Amino acid sequence: METATSGTEISSELAAEAEEHDLLTLGVEEEYLLVDATEPRAAELVEEVFAELPGNLRDVVQHEYYRTQIEVASPPHLELGALTEALRGLRSGVAAAAERAGARLVAVGTGPAAGHNARIVDNERYHRMRERFGDLSPGQGMCGTHVHVSIPDPETGVQVLNHLRPWLPVLQAATANSPLFAGHDTGYASWRSVMWERWPTVGPTPYLRSHEHYLTLVEDLVASGAMLDDGMLYWYARLSAHYPTVEIRMGDVMPTADDAVLLAALTRALVATLLREVRAGTPAPDVAHPLLMAAHWRAAHDGLEGLNIDMATRQPRPAWRLLRQLFDYVRPELERHGDLATVTRLLGRLREHGSGAARQRALLARGGSVAEVVDWLANTTRGDR
Question: Which reaction does it catalyse (predicted)?
Fold first, then answer.
């Protein structure tokens, strides 16, 4: 949920380098939960955390909907190494500010521990949203990951959105990191996804005929009352309202900066691969909307360790196998962007340790408590090894 622009403008030097080598830039936004310094419950301390932020972070850290949340946005990058350094710096810097304010920074999709429903940030737009839509998001906040990948123009971007639709459920499964809510296991790998879908414009991107069609849909949704403005277009992939990017936004925030970098790299390689299909005139598969909804539900329920829907056969298959299929599909663009070695290593690590949801459940299975899960998440978010 945005109140203003996020991220930073691409520099002319970076834009020129990207154009010269026909490469795509990428950036990442992450939303985090603030929890009490000693207890696992969420803490409404966002203003106190902002007061502790150093000057170099103030332009890239934002409020979110609830007082228990905070958001960061990396600058655009070409190299994964630079993106990794930026995300680690953001996490450690905001985590340190949170600790000075009596809180901990936690990269998790929903509040794992029991607690009261949080209050919204004192912001005119958020108050209007609350008045219009009521209590659609009870709890302590929902935290996601958004990946921005550059596109040449909006018309091409719309065609990329069409091509992206079949691939997003498996990427969502890879991000699953919210099995716990209010002190218990929900039975879902991503409970944030279930809660998030209560909002009227959340869901798979529809099949779009053109950029004009995209703009008409946005205007119609605002006129219907389902959105206050175009910032409430919560499709799983959309055109950025502020930057020349497509924004992929269906995933939970992930436990580590490396997890986020892996998602970003796979997303950029996928967009680059699909751009080539668009330029070649290859039509996007017009996947039935109910099947996409089923695949996204499966991603939320099973996560990466269960099944998802193979859009080519319309049959359930292991989500890990579908993620590997995506990796093989985008491998040429991973190599061309210089990301193959890093992604291969990070994908192996994800395979070894499992999704965030699997890691949380493994702690509980070993006799850990919800409080110990929150401790682990806080340490992992901060970057402790």
Answer: L-cysteine + L-glutamate + ATP = gamma-L-glutamyl-L-cysteine + ADP + phosphate + H(+)
